[in-house]
Design a protein that fits this description.
By secondary structure, the protein is of the alpha/beta class. Strands 1, 2, 3, 4, 5, 6, 7, 8 and 9 form a nine-stranded mixed β-sheet that branches. It has a six-stranded parallel β-sheet with strand order 12-11-10-13-14-15, with helices on both faces. Helix 11 links the parallel strand 14 and strand 15. The protein is globular and about 70 Å long. The protein starts with a strand and ends with a helix. The mean pLDDT is about 90.
């Protein structure tokens, strides 16, 4: 099968969607499918094609990524992409690259699979003006609808996507496909004491501290202010716990200034945006993964961190999304308040080395239950279903 995947962002951009798409491509190719990814990049002036990836020039934009495809309806690019003669178009965004996917699918007369990764109402939460937020959300909602209305099959890693569809005033079924990662790359057993020491030095972390890590886009909906205030109120310097924040986004400057205001600069470290190739080493150099988001869908960083053996601290609201993965007191803890968050953080920090090693294996075993191609195999079924639905629609 020939599959075209459309995503606005891809490595070196660090986020769950780019990781998800790369893992899917690898899995599909392992199953002998031909895959081409179409994405955008702000670092090029002309479209490029290399190693199965078409990159289109991007311009600055007010979306959560900070940029979007410049000419999504460029006839030359559309014709070039269509020349791959796809059997199916798989869209992972409702930004401009998503619309390019719809144009290609229409020109090539093939079905569309749309994967929901995020919630349209969260994307402009950083806007201080309620009026501007309402206007932007109106357009985001319409973009979301356009993808839903033109998709033959809709997929997501989380059942909460049903709620998003209803809030967009649509009625469509969602095919649930569990997120997977490359468990060979993301494996704490690949790290050595020497490599861990080296990474901690590189990140400015203490060799003996317990390190909690968050990785992802630094946006309002991640609710990182909760974690920072919890640190300032309930974590003492003598607890010897440090927080590493990996990623970049609209809230970066605010979060850094908040650390100064809260006097926790010496406890919190910002790594900025890093290559996904570095993430296995970074996770392996840390001890705990923390999340305070109250909304959104299942995060790829959860999956990657767990594959590296990190127990998860997840907020109660988010637990409703991750309840199939997080077993309270086994591979992580669910908290509902700042004191509770701090209590679990200290509990994990006080474990001796043998218990930490045992927990790492328990966490990894709780995740690695299927072959790494299982996500791709589920998408094979989604593509077959989309092709059948499209055929029924055409010959109806």
């Amino acid at each position: 099968m020939r599959i075209l995947i459309f995503t606005e962002v891809l490595a070196p951009y660090v986020c769950g969607i780019s990781s998800y798409v790369e893992i899917l491509k690898k899995g599909l190719e392992a199953l002998s499918h031909q895959v081409v990814i179409v994405t955008s990049s702000p670092f090029i002036q002309d479209a490029t094609y290399k190693n199965g990836v078409i990159r289109c020039p991007a311009k600055k934009a007010g979306n959560k990524y900070g940029y979007e495809c410049k000419n999504y309806n460029d006839p030359k690019i559309i014709n070039f992409i269509t020349s791959f003669e796809p059997d199916v178009v798989h869209i992972h965004t409702d930004t401009r690259i998503g619309y390019m996917g719809l144009l290609v699918a229409d020109k090539a007369s093939v079905p569309v699979v749309f994967t929901i990764h995020d919630y349209f109402m969260d994307r402009n939460a950083a806007d201080k003006s309620r009026m501007i937020w309402n206007v932007k959300t109106y357009f985001e909602k319409q973009h979301f609808r356009d993808m839903i209305d033109n998709a033959d099959v809709i997929t997501s890693s989380c059942s909460r996507a049903d709620i998003f569809i209803r809030k967009a005033d649509r009625k469509r079924k969602v095919m649930l496909i569990e997120s997977k990662t490359d468990t060979n790359r993301f494996d704490y057993r690949n790290a050595t004491p020497a490599s861990i020491r080296k990474m901690r030095v590189k990140l400015g972390l203490s060799a003996k501290a317990t390190v909690a890590v968050f990785a992802g886009q630094l946006t309002v909906e991640k609710n990182l202010e909760f974690i920072l205030t919890a640190f300032s109120q309930h974590i003492r310097k003598q607890d010897n716990i440090q927080l590493l924040i990996v990623g970049d986004g609209t809230e970066t400057d605010y979060l850094k200034s908040l650390c100064t205001i809260l006097h926790i600069d010496d406890m919190v470290f910002f790594a900025g945006a890093v290559s996904n190739n570095m993430m296995p080493e970074i996770y392996s150099a840390c001890d705990i993964y923390v999340c305070s988001s109250e909304d959104g869908l299942m995060s790829m960083s959860f999956v990657e961190a767990m594959a590296c053996g990190l127990p998860i601290l997840v907020k109660g609201d988010k637990y409703e999304i991750a309840d199939d993965m997080i077993k309270n007191g086994v591979n992580g803890f669910i908290y509902n308040s700042k004191p509770e968050f701090a209590k679990y953080l200290r509990t994990l920090s006080l474990l001796d080395e043998s218990k930490r090693k045992r927990i790492k294996q328990i966490v990894r075993d709780s995740l690695v239950t299927e072959d790494d191609t299982s996500m791709a195999e589920q998408y094979e079924k989604a593509y077959d279903l989309a092709i059948q639905k499209y055929s029924d629609k055409i010959f109806k």
